[in-house]
Amino acid sequence: MNPVILFDGECNFCDSSVQFIIKRDPQGLFHYASLQSEAGQELLKKYDVPADIDSMVLIEKDKAYYKSSAALRICRRLQGAWKLLYGFIIVPSFIRNFFYDFIARNRYKWFGKKEESCMLPSPSVRKRFL
Predict the structure, then answer these.
(1) What digits encode the pLDDT tens for the residues 28-71?
(2) ∠ at Cα 68 (64, 71), nearest 5°?
(3) How far does the chain reach from its first CA to its final CA, in angstroms?
(4) Which long-range contacts does 55-58 make (Cβ < 8 Å, 24+ apart)?
(5) What is the dihedral of CA 53, 59, 64, 69, to 10 degrees?
(6) What residue spans define the domains of the chain?
(7) Average pLDDT over residues 104-118
(8) Global pTM?
C-alpha cells in the first residue's frame, strides 16, 4: 500500500502543502485524503488516531504518524534537498511538536479556510486521491 497523507481539507495552508508535496513527488508515491472525507475518517479509525487530532497524518507501513513526525517522514521521500530535513527527527518530538502545534493553532488565522471551490487536479494526480 502506498503511503497516505491525510490533511485538513478546509485549510488553505494544508491544501498548499499537498500541492507542494505533489510537485516534489513525481513518482506518485503518496496518496491523499482529507481528514473530513469518508476515506479519511475510515483510516483514522483503522489506525486508532485520536479523534481530536489537529495535524497532518501520514499512514506508512501500517502505522500512523502525525505532527512533526509525519511532516519529516514525508520530507524524507520528496525529491531534492527536502530530504535533508529528515535529520531533524533526532530532535525530541516534544520540541518539534511545540513548533508544529504553534503553526497548526494559527493556520486558519494566517492562511484562511477554503471556500467552496477546489483546484481540479490532472487525471494522473486525481487518481492518487482516495
Answers:
(1) 999 999 998 999 999 999 999 987 888 899 999 999 999 999 99
(2) 75
(3) 12
(4) 55/100, 55/104, 56/5, 56/6, 56/7, 56/8, 56/14, 56/17, 57/5, 57/6, 57/7, 58/3, 58/4, 58/5, 58/6
(5) -80
(6) 4-126
(7) 75
(8) 0.86
| DSSP-based three-state secondary structure for 28 | coil
Cell of 61: 507501513
Q: Are 58 and 74 a contacting pair, CB within 8 Å?
A: yes
Tell me which amino acid residue 60 is: E
| Edge-first strand listing for the sheet containing 63-66 | 31-34, 4-7, 57-60, 63-66
Residue with cell 478546509: 10
Residue with cell 482529507: 34
For residue 122, give the C-alpha cell: 490532472
Question: Which amino acid is present at 40?
Answer: G
